[in-house]
Amino acid sequence: MILDTLSDQQKDAVVKNGNVLLTACPGSGKTRVIIHKLAYALKNIDLDSKQRIVALTFTVRASEEIYRRLNAMGINSKRVWSGTLHSFCLEWIIKPYSCYLPELENGYLIADETYASDIISELKEKHKLKPIDPINFRFNRDGTFAEPKTIQKRVLKEYHARLQAEKLIDFELLLYYSYKLLTKHPKIKKTLSNIFSLICVDEYQDTQDLLYAIISSIVTTGEGSSNLFLVGDTDQAIYASLGGIAKSLEEIQEELKTLPIEQLTLSGNYRSTQRIIDFYSIFQTNPIKIEAIGTNKDVDSIITYNNTIDKGYLVDEIARLIEHSLENGIPEDEICVLVPQWWLITTITKQLRAKLPDVNFDASGLAPMSKNRNNIWYKLSRLFLTQPQPKIYSLRYKWCSEVIENFKEHTNTEFSEQYQTERNVLKLINSLTSNETEGIDYLNDCFDQFLDAVGIDQTIYAQLLINRKTFFDVIKSRLEDPTFQVPSDIASFMSFYREMSGVVINTCVGVKGEEFETVIAYGLLNGYIPHWNDIFTGDPVAASKKLLYVICSRAKTNLHLISETGRQTKKGNPLEITPELQNLNFEFDEL
Predict the structure, then answer these.
(1) Could you confirm whether the keyword Cytoplasm appears in this record (predicted)?
(2) pLDDT at position 498
């Protein structure tokens, strides 16, 4: 039953025993394979045992999608743990074993990202660094900084001293301390290898070196009792600047020592027409023949490229392309406008809404609280800004569990006896109301009512107060920023958490893994794609090809690329066309 709807390649991946490296081209159904792999593996697990199956994802959204799909299949997900790689380290290594590490034995809290960013900004100014000067926060396996530059190392040393003084750890420390615990205390690895019979890693090409080390150490300690299932595509490795490493089969084999690993491939594309595939295959760095096998494989595609339009007429051109798709029966939510950098989203969204007032747009990445995703108050705000509905009950239940656990970590106390279960906390949240009409006032009122009900006096917990102030400071800064134009009323706040519909406007990074009938991508200019950082310090050709590969492979049928003129550097020099497009020999369509 589990295998009935799968292709032969997908079935082979699902039933394969042992360690597997699955190379999955765009549109090949890799998420589908992961879901069915989990379901298939669950057949061999006693639901009353302590054994678990793990699905590690790059984003929270992807992990929540795994739970949704399993539930839709009627699969009991009790023995499945899905979350981000950082969450895995926190939940399964740091929380249960922090007492074994001197740096954490007296307690710790996860640093709010915005608070940590403010510290870095302050230290950059102190050491005469520019705000845009990059700093590599990652650790090597031996605990040394990966950052090679002297001044940046000084900033990092002072930054970590500040964190230590406040008993805070950021995401990079989270990884390093996890690895250190596994290295110093091998029994932890043995325990984890006995618990996890299967560890699935989605988007493995975006995994940091320390995470390869953490996962492989658990698998190798199990000596075959714990299997590894890596899924990804090296041509979609666009997070190198964040430490992502697309390791080869040989490098992964080296991590696994004597344990064998087999490489499999998903080469069939259910998403795009063959013409779209043939076009984006130009940007492959690891050539794999990709064949269209979906129902639309032979549909006529439109691929256009405009490198003459001035940025002053850009909105008119994008609006024309949107209207053309709508006139040809393509739904709004099957149209996507892609930008290379997030700061370009605001202006284009505002202008398109004015130009096309009858068209709905989804630019939910502009939510004023979106920078606070790991803040305890952000997690609580999701519960107050979403309505109880059957289809998101499991999600709200999961959020509630996180809130209960996070408050316990911050206060070292329990909620009052009545509210120590997720179900009762959900009932409480659903029962609380406020007459406030402004988003910030509404959330403050709800937070105060909640704390009073569960018996938490926030005034005696400094970190709770710091995180709450940070949460609202970020919202205020976005509301006051004229480039964002974000509404402040509570109805608008709630709309950010509803399932959005309309023409999607997002970055090429933000839509990784998604697909649309029509993709319109602009800003394809040297300095944006590839980014200046890659031009000066990385591999600009590889970075450019991978970003173009990801952008173009989101399209099912229609692809419109734009390298507008009129954009300049800060010194007034005109931005040039992305070289990989400038030198392209392809017969584009006219529209």
Answers:
(1) no
(2) 61
